[in-house]
Specification:
three-stranded mixed sheet; 5 helices; globular
């Protein structure tokens, strides 16, 4: 009985105070770090409510060189392991204006356009939307999908390549 109470107490302590400190320097720290200046410059975080729906445009760019469905789904699984609140950010203000976020085998996802950030789980959801709308069967390579989700007129988008 005492073991169960101790376990419950430790579990509650973990959730109430967060994980243990990584180094002795932050052992007494209870504050949350403010966002970096780079994050502040990106503006508000896009959420599903901000970009989902009629304002979105899914543009299919599927070719024989596009990722296979299993590569795309592996990429989605990789993103989902990162936790529900991890932020993905496009910080590239020059050239292609794209920042690659994740890759898995022959699939990669980038965020492009003006600098912005969004919860990475939304990026994973967008990849599934591209899969559902844009996949086609290539006789030599199986099911493939490629394309992008355009969020609004200013060019913010997620690209599967």
């Amino acid at each position: 009985m005492q073991f169960k109470i101790l376990t419950l107490t430790l579990a509650l302590s973990f959730f109430a105070f967060g994980r243990a400190a990584d180094t002795p320097d932050d052992a007494n720290s209870t504050s949350i770090e403010p966002p970096s200046q780079a994050e502040l410059d990106l503006g508000p975080i896009l959420t599903f409510d901000d970009h989902a729906g009629e304002r979105d445009t899914i543009i299919c760019d599927t070719t024989s060189a596009s990722p296979t469905r299993s590569e795309l789904e592996g990429l989605v699984a990789l993103i989902r392991t990162k936790g529900p609140w991890m932020r993905c950010m496009n910080t590239n203000k020059h050239g292609s204006r794209c920042t690659q976020q994740f890759s898995y085998k022959g699939a990669a996802v980038s965020m492009c356009g003006p600098t912005f950030r969004m919860v990475c789980q939304e990026v994973a959801n967008d990849l599934l939307r591209i899969r559902d709308r844009c996949q086609w069967y290539d006789r030599n390579g199986g099911w493939k999908a490629g394309g992008r989700v355009q969020y609004n007129a200013d060019g913010k988008r997620t690209e599967l390549h």
